[in-house]
Amino acid sequence: MMAESSEEPKFALRLIIDEEKEKVVLAEAGRDFVDVLFSLLTLPMGTIVRLLEKHRKSEFGCFSNIYKSVADVGVDNFETEACQQILLNPRSVKEVQCKRLKLNINPTDCLKFFKCRSFAACNLCSNFSGSECVCGELMDQEIDLSEEDQVQNDVDGVFVKGRSSFIITDDLNVYVGSTGLVLKTLSRLNCSDVSKLGEKFLDIGIEEIVTLLEYMFSSDSPLTDTFLKKQSPHDVKNIPKLLSPCVKVKTDEPESEFTLDAVVRKQDMKILYVECGEDFVDLLFTFLVVPLEYLCDINLGCIGNLRRSFKDLNVDTSTRCVLPYYYKCQKQLSDITTEEPPFYYRYRNSNPSQPDYSLTTDPDRSLLYRKDRLVPVTLIDPKCRGKDQSENGSGFIKRGTRFTVTDDLLIRATSFVSISIFVLNKLQIQADDLEVQAIRIRKAEAMSLMRASLLTSSALNSALWNLIAKKIKEET
Ligand SMILES: [Zn+2]
Which PANTHER family match (predicted)? Predict the structure, then answer.
């Protein structure tokens, strides 16, 4: 399947083409390619922003603005430097699986471990160099995992198993291939006359996969647009989908609630911007680490088809959005869960050529190391400094900070005097024409805001209009 190349791996992909219409009818691919296609759904949204900007020089709705804001807000407003880094380079729990892909468009380094100089007394580790230990020292001495823990088991396949070949339609439905299915697809697409069909073999690499990623959001025929046409995705007409008003979901879990001040133009009740505290900004920043597959109900381009196929063919059937442990925030959506931090033991290396300590996950390695020499080590929360470790899971942003967020989700830690004057000036309106409304955001609105970030550049108004509208009703 993989072509010989010294640079990057390439895939051979076989396309069946309707030559008259210059359209891909279907593609035949092996498991390796389907795994790569499905891996796109496991990418955190911030990673998609970064890849599209890097390879395609294109922006990605409000998500690009949130991502930009992480850099622009300034490291001083974050609890620690690591907070900014884990948002600019989001990580996912599926990274370990993705390392087995034949072509990984988002290669990541393995998480490293760092200790302070008083490790023997503190017994704490951080996954991020430069974290502050409870003893006040910096954790910047790297500590190795035991060799056994570094070995990756050689499992067959990544997301799909077996040796089958697969059929991929132009709108990204993926099926296990069979003659019956091919015939059915041909007749559904009015291509029963096979004399009009041609074949094309392509070698595709990272650039093509990122192009396909971009078309997945904007086109109803991403394979045709990626492999047969030379136009840029910006030319593809994307029909904006209207958002349905939020439906209140009843749940037993306690809901996080965010309170904001919406600055509204009275004339049309449009939200110009909101003023908020650090918890709402933490929520918006969390959007960047949510993998694409969990953006519920997205009916955009061909994402829905690919997502359905992924659910049908994936060996892993869990449906919860799970993030690495260090993304846990004090207030977060009940739909988003974080992993428990993994647990390690330290042992002293007897061999003087090795570093003094190593870490292991397995407490029963009594044949190699005497059990009494294994000491439990706790991973610290990289969002906390030194002694604050006891107040676990605060957030990315320093507590007590106020922000403004514009309709297209640019987040600024800015003076309210200057933004009010800027807005009044820009819109040429009087101070009397504005009013401030306190609004409460719960799960339903937050989910709808996350979806709106992808679909429109007017995210606040699309997702929160009903909160403002309600207020008018109450007053009349
Ligand atoms: Zn320490």
Answer: DUF674 FAMILY PROTEIN (PTHR33103:SF57), OS01G0153900 PROTEIN (PTHR33103)
Distance 159 CA to ligand 1 centre (A): 40
**Closest alpha carbon to 175 in 343, 316, 305, 23:** 305
Give the separation between CA 326 and CA 341, rounded to whole angstroms.
8
pLDDT band at 349 (very low <50, low <70, confident <90, very high): confident
The Cβ of residue 46 has, within 10 Å, a number of other Cβ atoms equal to: 26
C-alpha of 130 from chain center? 25
Ligand 1 centroid to residue 269 C-alpha, Å: 53
- CA 116 to centroid of ligand 1, rounded, Å: 5
Asked whether the CA dihedral 224, 229, 233, 235 is positive or negative, the reply is negative
Q: How far is the CA of 119 from the centre of ligand 1 (A)?
A: 6
pLDDT at 328 over 50: yes
> Among residues 105, 137, 108, 111, which one has the least CA distance to residue 124?
137
Nearest by Cα to 31 from 175, 216, 161: 161
Which is higher by pLDDT, 363 or 242?
363
Instruction: Return mean pLDDT, the chain.
Output: 84
Percentage of the chain surpassing pLDDT 90?
44
**CA dihedral sign, ordered 11, 14, 19, 21:** negative
